[in-house]
Amino acid sequence: MSLTGRYVAVIGPADTARPSDLARATELGRLLAEAGAVVLTGGHHGVMRAAAAGVDSADGVSIGLLPGLARDEGAPEHTYLLPTGLGELRNGLLVRAADAVVAVGCSWGTLSEIALARRTGVPLVLIDPWDLPEDVGVVVASAGEAVDAVVSQLG
Amino acid sequence: MSLTGRYVAVIGPADTARPSDLARATELGRLLAEAGAVVLTGGHHGVMRAAAAGVDSADGVSIGLLPGLARDEGAPEHTYLLPTGLGELRNGLLVRAADAVVAVGCSWGTLSEIALARRTGVPLVLIDPWDLPEDVGVVVASAGEAVDAVVSQLG
Amino acid sequence: MSLTGRYVAVIGPADTARPSDLARATELGRLLAEAGAVVLTGGHHGVMRAAAAGVDSADGVSIGLLPGLARDEGAPEHTYLLPTGLGELRNGLLVRAADAVVAVGCSWGTLSEIALARRTGVPLVLIDPWDLPEDVGVVVASAGEAVDAVVSQLG
Amino acid sequence: MSLTGRYVAVIGPADTARPSDLARATELGRLLAEAGAVVLTGGHHGVMRAAAAGVDSADGVSIGLLPGLARDEGAPEHTYLLPTGLGELRNGLLVRAADAVVAVGCSWGTLSEIALARRTGVPLVLIDPWDLPEDVGVVVASAGEAVDAVVSQLG
């Protein structure tokens, strides 16, 4: 099972992340890194920071695309941090730069990324999302299943 | 009841707009124009075009922010059409440029705009949206009620 | 001589505009409006504001694309003002949305727009630019000649 | 002399790069990597590819921010490639994400980045630029001097 050379975005809430979101994001980051993926995030705290910490624990690479202009706004667990100055429009940039997207939990910002991924056809896996009425993508129960689903979709 | 000097974005599906969405969008465009608002849209067909036609019927002004680089991709019912070349990121631009957003129907692209409006605090009114699990904004049943709700929020 | 249905961006310095730049921008705005063009600007003061004032004096239409998120940052002489929140990246948006660009005077921000217009092939006319070593476009001496040159290029 | 933790953008022509530009870009990439910098480029060929090759020869890290939507448009010498879909607006993103910018040679696209760097105050070093009439930044004669100048400005 390899995601070498693949870019996987991990998205999810910053301020409203639950402890379960954070735990899953860290495990997800670790597993994606072990599978060889480059992990992309929005660079901030909450799920983003937790995912970057997981990547770091496996000596992997994470790149955070920040909404603001200051690199030091980013969570230092990221390997690389790139300020975009695009505000919330960086959500769209994150989806574009990714080969697949995994959402951990939900928030309005996260939902904008989920919707853009669906709109533009980027493979999407969700752990514990909000109830959404349409076929939103592959919903799984754990970080391990999420990585399996990404591999399956990108394989 | 006046929206003079206010910018209201009308968002909604292009390809998947239902006849009821189109009828409501046209009435909404007309009522917003009569109330003095400048109407912003994504410049394309479906709900966007229907809203622009309603605005035009009341001699109002609509500005379409197109995702592509070609002005002639836009629906000609718009008063002005501006290519952005940002692709789906122009959804975020539309929300930013608006004082309030009215969604007519839903689609994944529309949902990305709804979510961004909620994320960034832009007043939001919805007619016939998808079932969304969180407090998404003011849901109303008709174009007339939508205009009342916009006036109430911006007043 | 008609520019009806055409969008012409007027670019130039804000803080460092000279009195001669402002006078030419106002005349240029007036002449473009009289020829039927929609005038686009960056929405701020200096050359942008002067051009919008000229447009307004001829009952024409100007649309200012602001770098920030607040509409009231814009010069009120504009007919419409759209916040983009893109910062200096709105310079590129302005060039994209225009059928032709006229630069009045120069500054680093203006030069970034001139260079993007040349890079992307948008017709470009310049009044009193900096000395630039390459064939930068059509350099003219007055607002009247600039409008003639735009008509000639778009004709 | 260390640039550890610093992000330096190397900009320059793609199609119109001269052999001397390419040679300097490769040496510059190598020296920046040896000094510990992360090198950012526009991801394409010409100066961008040459710089990435130099970085790679020193086992450094380069990140290419591509204008299009396809990762495989990028030059494979880059360590990481991120599609932005912003077209020429990614030039502005590149300048924003960098702590300093080094231009090797010139072109209209390069000039737009030089002008944005000057406009937004990002430290700028130039090797063999076009003749520009204003104080454009620190002009040097070689890749080695460019790295010294970057260190001096960021120190």
TrEMBL record, chains A, B, C, D:
<dbReference type="Pfam" id="PF18306">
    <property type="entry name" value="LDcluster4"/>
</dbReference>
<protein>
    <recommendedName>
        <fullName>TIGR00725 family protein</fullName>
    </recommendedName>
</protein>
<dbReference type="InterPro" id="IPR041164">
    <property type="entry name" value="LDcluster4"/>
</dbReference>
<dbReference type="InterPro" id="IPR052341">
    <property type="entry name" value="LOG_family_nucleotidases"/>
</dbReference>
